[in-house]
Amino acid sequence: MEVASQKEVGEMLEKHGISAEDLPRIRITDPALIPLGPKIGDVIKIFRQSPATCCEVLYYRLVVE
After folding, report:
1. Half-sphere exposure of residue 1, counting CA atoms within 13 Å on the CB side?
2. Hey, is 1 helix, strand or coil?
3. Domain that holds residue 23
């Protein structure tokens, strides 16, 4: 898990034709975010292993209050 760069977020949003407000949300109080120290409005990249393909899948979450 890591904070996505503004450039990466902009490219991803443009590619999918959405805004940051359309992303799923994660609360800033989520214990998993403490080591990252994100700010409200940041976008978090979450890497997970896909049980179906054994490949890594990337998820994005908008940090909210």
Report:
1. 18
2. coil
3. 2-64
**Does the reported pTM lie above 0.90?**
no
Structure tokens at 11: 């490219």
| Tens digits of residue pLDDT in 31-62 | 999 999 999 999 999 998 877 777 888 999 99
CATH of the domain at 24: 3.90.940.20
Q: What is the DSSP string of 2-59?
A: EEPPHHHHHHHHHHHT--GGGS-EEETT-GGGTTT---TT-EEEEEEE-TTTSSEEEE
Q: Which strands, in side-by-side order, build the sheet including 56-64?
A: 2-3, 43-49, 56-64, 25-27
Residue 4 gets the label, from left (phi > 0), alpha (psi -120 to 50) or beta, of beta
